[in-house]
Design goal:
The complex is a heterodimer of chains A (about 120) and B (about 110).
Chain A: E1 5-7, E2 10-13, E3 19-24, E4 31-37, E5 43-50, E6 65-69, E7 75-79, E8 88-95, E9 107-108, E10 112-116
Parallel strand pairs in A: 2-10
Antiparallel strand pairs in A: 1-3, 3-7, 4-5, 4-8, 6-7, 8-9, 8-10
Chain B: E1 3-6, E2 11-14, E3 19-26, E4 32-38, E5 45-51, E6 56-59, E7 62-67, E8 72-77, E9 86-93, E10 100-101, E11 105-110
The chains are: A mainly beta (about 120), B mainly beta (about 110).
Chain lengths: ~120, ~110
């Protein structure tokens, strides 16, 4: 079946512009995660959605970052007034469930490589 | 502060040999630990999970150990093949839904 998809695969933008990154999780997965991966660094947790619960935004690095998930499916990560330090690969993952049953594996998309000039 | 450390250097091994990767952590009390594989330009792919009360887990040519006293997990690839060349990530799950990832170890298997 279809895995997690992300778009665009690559995004080059100028400093100060806003960008939107999209994630389509696996159908039926209730948990959705966004991570950021910088060169040579581990994946950095950004935000977590679980069903209709309020998202855990504790990993968002600044108020320029926001995310929403519509209808419990597609998610959009928005970065406003992009800075050069925002350049990274942004990965989305989904899982059948979250919370204490999150020993379930996470299924990752291919990521969006963001370059801020 | 919390820290997860994996082999800092890339691992280059001969085909057929065993690759051993380490994942050390401090100031975590993970309920379980996962290992993922990541190929260039792709997202990580789940390989194995081991719980805190398990000492060892195997899956085909992969073996993972978990020592909560040493705060360390070892990941072994036996009878390695060039197709095993990738970056391997360990991820800790304290007791909620957040995974905390190490930076990964890049393995290259020479034919």
């Amino acid at each position: 079946g279809a895995g997690v998809s992300q778009s665009p695969s690559n995004k080059v933008t100028e400093k100060g512009k806003d960008v939107e990154l999209r994630c389509d999780p696996i159908s039926g997965h209730t948990a959705l995660y966004w991570y950021r991966q910088s060169l040579g660094q581990g994946l950095e947790f950004l935000i977590y959605f679980q069903g209709n619960s309020a998202p855990d935004k504790s990993g968002l690095p600044s108020d320029r970052f926001s995310a929403e998930r519509t209808g419990g499916s597609v998610s959009t990560l928005t970065i406003q007034r992009t800075q050069q330090e925002d350049s990274a690969v942004y990965l989305c993952a989904s899982s059948p469930a979250g919370g204490f049953s999150s020993y379930n594996e996470q299924f990752f998309g291919p990521g969006t490589r963001l370059t801020v000039l | 502060s919390q820290k997860i450390e994996q082999n800092s250097e890339a691992l280059n091994i001969q085909e057929g040999k065993t690759a051993t990767l380490t994942c050390n952590y401090t100031n975590y009390s993970p309920a379980y630990l996962q290992w993922y594989r990541q190929d260039p330009g792709r997202g990580p792919v789940f390989l194995l999970l081991i719980r805190e009360n398990e000492k060892e887990k195997r899956k085909e040519r992969l073996k993972v150990t978990f020592d909560t006293t040493l705060k360390q997990s070892l990941f072994h690839i036996t009878a390695s093949q060039p197709a095993d060349s990738a970056t391997y990530l360990c991820a800790l799950v304290p007791n909620d839904y957040k995974l905390s990832f190490g930076a990964g170890t890049t393995v290259t298997v020479r034919a």
